[in-house]
Amino acid sequence: MSPHTHAFQAEVAQLLHLVTHSLYSNPDIFARELISNASDACDKLRFEALNNPALYEDQPNLEVRVSIDKAAKTITIADNGIGMSEQEAIDNLGTIAKSGTKDFVSKLTGDQKADSQLIGQFGVGFYSGFIVADKITVETRRAGLKPEEGVRWVSGGAGDFSTETITRPGRGTSITLHLREDKQDYLNSYKLKSIISQYSDHIGLPILMPKEEWKEGEEGQPGDMVQTGEWEQVNEASALWTRPKKDITPEQYNNFYQTLAHDFEDPLAWSHNKVEGNTEYTQLLYIPARAPFDLYQRDHKHGLKLYVRRVFIMDEAESLLPQYLRFVKGVVDASDLPLNVSRELLQESRDIKTIREGNTRRVLAMLEDMAKQQATPPDSAEGKTDVGSGESVPAPEPVETEDGVTDVVDKSDAAPAAEAAAAFAEQKTGANKYATFYAEFGAVLKEGLGEDTGNRDRIAKLLRFASTTTDTVSVSFADYKARMKEGQEAIYYITADSLSAAKNSPQLELFRKKGIEVLLMADRVDEWALSFLHEFDGTPLQSVAKGAVDLGKLQDEEEKKAAEAAQETAKPLLEKLKEALKADAQDVRATTRLVDSPACLVSEDNGMSVQLARMLKQAGQPVPDIKPVLEVNVDHALIRKLAEVQDDATRFNDLAQVLFDQALLAEGGMPADPAAYVRRVNALLA
Ligand SMILES: Nc1ncnc2c1ncn2[C@@H]1O[C@H](COP(=O)(O)OP(=O)(O)OP(=O)(O)O)[C@@H](O)[C@H]1O
């Protein structure tokens, strides 16, 4: 049958252009990506064959063979894994199924450097072949289909590809890269072998390459390496997590991570443990250095790779970690689960519950170590004993889980001294690891306050905020508490749409005057997350934008009395204002919280803040119609002016409305009728 031509999905075409242009300086990764796909394909076959052993046909040994054809200038990577049907080849190699891809591609700027950073968050997979090849031929046959149902897929990496039916006796996939003119150095088998063994060493199945031997040249001719006709294995072929920690170098851990996560960067930290007890499993967990582009997509795929006794079961097993730790990558190899376990069964399994709790504790411990590391610079004595990355993550003490099972962490194969030193040296350069982590994933971690009641206190300790004393997101609740003024009874915070809106909010005026620190929160998730945390270490949390201002012992008696007196004297004016603004404000009252501003908006103590209501509305969520309270500074000139014009109803109403709209603007809102607001202000200015 003659080949059919198909167009790439538009985003694929754009991505391909980007891959070949931006990743040009990083060509070796094609080997990692294609070998990782081959290994995944073998994992999938092994899994499907659990229920259908006939899929193995006459080839029960799964392997990948990599060969070079110098004359044809090609490299071929062949596996005997699951293979693809024609439709699968068209779908899998011509479209990208990830949601949010369109958005992602539209963010690309055309600037190679910036884009190559972005692409790291995406993972290019199969398409990385086009970095070194100007044409790729894929020949594949799905396990279980007839030999005549093979398919050949060919593309030059531009706008389209072709497919045709072929006869392929063996199942699986071979990918032939027709090397670009300037990438012919990969035809050197020594070079290719060293790249492949580096990228595939941790892969659990054999990677074979043709064996070569040195042959002396005849009659004065120079000697050369020649193929012996045999194959040799170039990797260790034991899955990394199954090896003792002492035999694994940091570089191998990093390489494994990059393959697993399709990331170009090294992770910030990892933790590798064999957990014994009623539920036995091995966990290898990584904290990435960069958030993937789709971290906030509703259907973002997350979770760990699940193996049962070294047999791959599934990718993205989301039951192995809570949602708020969805940034963690890694592998869990469980000893006690049935091989035919399904996603549905996982959700109900007690073993999985134990593993999930164990993983959660371990990740929180890694984060605590990173945070501690950051707080204690590594050149201080304390930092040295407490290295927080990789092998050196100290295992948390055995912890009783809810169902009484004790996780015992195997600490016997501790890192040898040289490696510990290497890990430590790495730490030195990585003193900002926690800040890096927090900038990427802090907002996700906060979701844990609502999601994980049991670990709420541990999560709260890991949170960092900007405050009125520092613009950097670095203040923990504990730091704040240590700096609290004598007599201060609450941890004060403000939520706003942005850091600058928070910082400039009129609600902070009194706090500033009195030198009281206020935490500034500008993440969308903050208000929701904080609604689950009422106190930290015995000190209540108090939003400065909710309820009447209560500085407790920090407010002196005289001020209190003066405020009460002002409230009393201003009563008729406040009543009038309330009447004029009855459509907008549920109450109008005098306040002491303002110093320079005439008015501000607050919400009732247990109510939803104005800012959260606005955010929900923008997101199309139903919002109860709650009106804010307008608080006014009776000492302000504008309020005095209001008092003066009380008898002129039109002027009074206009001024009152301007006062309300300005308070709304000051905290990031928008007047209900902006044109009317402008008209009123202009009338006042004229
Ligand atoms: N050697 C192979 N054997 C069988 N299927 C393959 C092979 N290589 C690729 N595929 C199929 O093509 C799909 C796309 O591969 P690609 O590497 O682009 O992305 P991926 O591996 O799914 O995603 P990511 O790289 O983000 O993990 C794979 O999901 C798989 O279904």
From TrEMBL:
Residues 371-405 are annotated as: Disordered. It comes from the Bacteria. Residues 26-183 form the Histidine kinase/HSP90-like ATPase domain. Pfam families: HATPase_c_3 (PF13589), HSP90 (PF00183). GO terms for cellular component: cytoplasm. The keyword Chaperone applies. It is found in: Cytoplasm. Keywords: ATP-binding, Chaperone, Cytoplasm, Nucleotide-binding, Stress response. Residues 615-686 are annotated as: C. GO terms for molecular function: ATP binding; ATP hydrolysis activity; ATP-dependent protein folding chaperone; unfolded protein binding. Belongs to the heat shock protein 90 family. This is Chaperone protein HtpG. It comes from Brachymonas denitrificans DSM 15123. The gene is htpG.
